[in-house]
Each structure stands twice: as C-alpha cells, then as structure tokens.
Amino acid sequence: MGEAMVAFTWVDARFQAPVEDSPFHTWTTAAGTAWAIFYRSGADYLLRFPGLADFQIGSNGCWVRCWSVPDVSDDTVQHLYLNQVVPLALSRQHRLVLHGSAVEIADAAVVFLGQSGAGKSTLAASFATNGYRMLSDDGVLLEYCQDAYQVRPSHPSIRLWADSQAALFGRHARLAPPVQYTDKARILADERAVFCPQARSLQRIYLLGDGTAKSPVFWPVTARDALIELVKHSFMLEVEAPEMLAFHFERLTALANQPFFFRLDYPRRFERLAPVRAAILKHIQR
Asked: In the chain, what's the furthest Cα-to-Cα distance?
C-alpha cells in the first residue's frame, strides 16, 4: 500500500539512545504501555517503537530511514514499516489512509472500519476465502480520481488471530515468518485467498459495531457521524501543524459527505459469517 511512494533505507542496527526532546504524540497499548512514540527531528520526524526500531521520516513523507534494535528480525522491521510507518509517511504527502480492511466485490471496493478487535480483518478474510479478492488490510489508501474515490491495493497479506486463522484457513494457510511484537499471523495471498492487484472504485464503507446484534443489521450514517469515525480511523503523522490538520480535515469532510457510509453490526461467531456475507452482498445490490 503506497510503499513505492516512499524511499526506504535500512541504515543499521543500534540500541535506542534516550531522546532529549519530549514527544509530541504517543500511541499506547490497551495495557497503557507506549507502543509508538513520536518526536520531532529538526524538520523531520523520529518514530520510535520501543525495543524494536527507530524510523526517521522526512518532512515531506517521501523518504524513511530505519535503525533496528539488535536481534530484532528483518521480518519484524519490514512489517512495522509496511503497516505503521508507510501510512504515516503518506499522510505527509497529503494522502488519505484509513485504518481498516478492504475487499473487492463486483469489481468495486468495500471497506470495513472499526476499533481494534472489531473483526475487520476476519470479515475481509471471510470474503477472501469465499470467492472474492482482498485489497488491503490495516491500511486502506484512498485516492480521488476522475470524480470518484478509489482504493489502491496494499501488500498481499492479511493479519489474523489464531482462532480466526483456524476457522477460515485451517492448517492450509500460507504464513509469513512471525514478527516479534504481535501474536497475530500474517497470511499471504494464494489461490485460497486471492489478492486484487488493481485499484477499485469505492462503493461502501461499513462502520463495524460491537457485536451485540443477534443478526446482521445495517443503518445509514449522517455526514457528521461519518466524519467523527473517519477522524478516529485515519493515519496522521502531524497532529499539531494547523495547515496540515486543516487540509486533512477538509479531505475527510469531503469523503464523509459521500453516500456510501453505513453502520453494520452482526454476531461475532465464525459459524455466522456466511449469512453475514450474504446480508452484505444483498445490501450492496440494494
């Protein structure tokens, strides 16, 4: 997803020295520990993943340099770069990247947004293992082209917890090497879960509920509520510069006023995924 738009240099391995300046932003885990720490580095940025790697991101988002911590695997660094760093760098290029998953349905893109654990990747993988093609997981890159929004394909893989992997792939998943910061498996596209390498026009964005519904239920979303959700689920490296925030907010507002936003809730049980897919397909056709 957009990695060709960012020049990447893997400099060396080194231990993480203390940073004198205070961070301007921090991502934390559910347990409250720092997951990613954002610093300014002159006109550029330093993104630190404690115990894993440091990434310097150019002020224009067009280049990234990496220093990994010794003994951190190459696959771990590559995974961090593709799933976390590239979307943030693209935001400095004024590109719009959403934290979600996307699949191709009837030659169009359908995007699932929601909180971590809401089932975005599982739902996308359910479609991908039943005759539809995966477009993106974790980062969904949107572009406005010829009076329409398009979803660009990302790297051909999808991340799943062990129970989702077992339910959808059994023992036949084609797995990438494990990484050192998550127990999620990265499942590579193959003939069982086919990848779509072409951009597709955006047809629907579904905002996933909390799983309390007893059957699939859909309801429309106002532009105001769509904007709130987009703000929560968009990647943004610069969270303080007024001109960047104003431009980003303007892009999100234009997107939120499109008529393809719906809330979707359904029971989070693997045996119910088939009727959920059927309900989504019927809703799209309608």
From this structure: 57
